[in-house]
Amino acid sequence: MNATIAYITFRGMLGRRRALLLFMLPAVLLLLAVALRITGNNDLNISTIVLQRFALTTLLPLLALIAGTGVIAPEIDDGQIMYILTKPIPRPVILLTKLAVAIALVVAFAVVPTLVAGLILTGGTAGLAAGFTVGTLVGGVAYCAVFVVLAVASRNAVTIGLLYALVWETLIGNFAPGARSLSIQQWSLSVTDAVSSASTVTSEVAFGLAAVLLVVVSVLGATLAAVRLRTLSVASAE
């Protein structure tokens, strides 16, 4: 970790227009949770649907995409990354710092709002809030690792990330059972199912397999991103 790079990255992320989405998306989740609680439409089934389809399936991948690509892709696109690459800082340290910032943003704007929304909806009933919080956390780490490596490897990282999250996980995953085994969303849901005792939470991927795949994807993504950044020349960054 490098404190200076982390500070600059945080300032850049929270100062851009895209930062509005970081605040708006969790605000919608919290307002929805409050509205359902006030109107009494917060039984376990409805709460599970909200936390799964909005928090885990929609909010998490979008925020992770914004954070994962935003911490480094703009610097590569406009050439500012050259100023960092010329400093006597190991490139793996630069990459891991960027990844840590992305994860921190996901925790602040996806994981914490999911916990708060879950508590508003169900309190501590069946461990539903805790389950989705843990599921969102581990899924967020994996998503960030994937989207950071995409940002380092391709200038079309946002497009590729959207295709994965929206087309593969949401569309194909709903109609092709085999695709669910290659879905961060389903792995996260499996962790949620393991933590929560709610019968309304189910996953088609076994917990052991999901846990292993989440770790593998997170570590592999960070490693590939660090390797790619190490081979990125200042000339190519310009």
Number of domains: 1
- Say how many strands there are: 0
Major sheet: none
Contiguous uncertain segments of 5+ residues: 234-238
Strand content: under 5%
Distance between the termini: 25 Å
Number of helices: 11
Approximately how much helix is present in the residues? over 70%
Average pLDDT reading: 88
| Main structural class | mainly alpha
Order of helices and strands: HHHHHHHHHHH
Question: What's the gyration radius in Å?
Answer: 18 Å
**What general outline do the C-alpha atoms trace?**
globular
Q: What tags apply to this protein structure?
A:
11 helices; disordered C terminus
Describe the protein in words:
The protein is an all-alpha fold and 238 residues long. The chain has eleven helices and no strands. α1 packs across α6, α2 runs parallel beside α6 and α7 packs parallel to α10. The radius of gyration is 18 Å and the shape is globular.
Give a brief description.
By secondary structure, the protein is mainly alpha-helical. The chain is 80% helix and 0% strand. The protein has helices at residues 3-15, 19-39, 44-70, 73-78, 81-85, 91-122, 128-153, 157-175, 184-195, 207-231, 234-237.
What's the helix and strand layout?
Blueprint: H1 3-15, H2 19-39, H3 44-70, H4 73-78, H5 81-85, H6 91-122, H7 128-153, H8 157-175, H9 184-195, H10 207-231, H11 234-237
Helix pairs in contact: 1-6, 2-3, 2-6, 3-6, 3-7, 3-8, 6-7, 6-10, 7-8, 7-9, 7-10, 9-10
